[in-house]
């Protein structure tokens, strides 16, 4: 039986780790997790905020996820959107999910990310 979601894996091109670290740590406020040595040899980065983990793995012939995406629940979504905009990250608001405020953005390699907060939370 499934008990919880452990992590979400996104792909990235070789050599993008410095840009990923800047974005996921400095812009999104996540913490980088050390990868086990056998996996660190493959490149990529792992990040965490609270119980949420995002793993960015290096993929040959990388293409960013334009439709598929993680949905990241945030608190004080307007302030969080302002944080992204202050770091020159795109914020595209969307009203298509009843009962939620949400926006979409992209990481530095083009992966789509959704940020959402239930209304009245």
Describe this structure in words.
The chain is α/β, with parallel strands linked by helices. It has one domain: 2,3-Dihydroxybiphenyl 1,2-Dioxygenase, domain 1 (Roll). The chain has three helices and eight strands, in the order E-H-E-H-E-E-E-H-E-E-E. The strands form two sheets. It has a four-stranded mixed beta sheet with strand order 1-4-3-2, with helices on one face. Strand 6 (92-94) and strand 7 form a beta hairpin. The relative contact order is 0.21.
| Percent helix | 10-25%
Q: State which percent range the strand residues make up.
A: 25-35%
Mean residue pLDDT:
95
Number of helices: 3
CATH topology, what is it called? Answer: 2,3-Dihydroxybiphenyl 1,2-Dioxygenase, domain 1
Low-confidence stretches: none
- What's the CATH first level? Alpha Beta
β-strand number: 8
At CATH level 2, the architecture is Roll
Layout of helices and strands, plus pairs?
Layout: E1 8-12, H1 17-27, E2 31-33, H2 37-40, E3 45-49, E4 52-58, E5 71-73, H3 77-86, E6 92-94, E7 100-106, E8 112-118
Parallel strand pairs: 1-4, 5-8
Antiparallel strand pairs: 2-3, 3-4, 6-7, 7-8
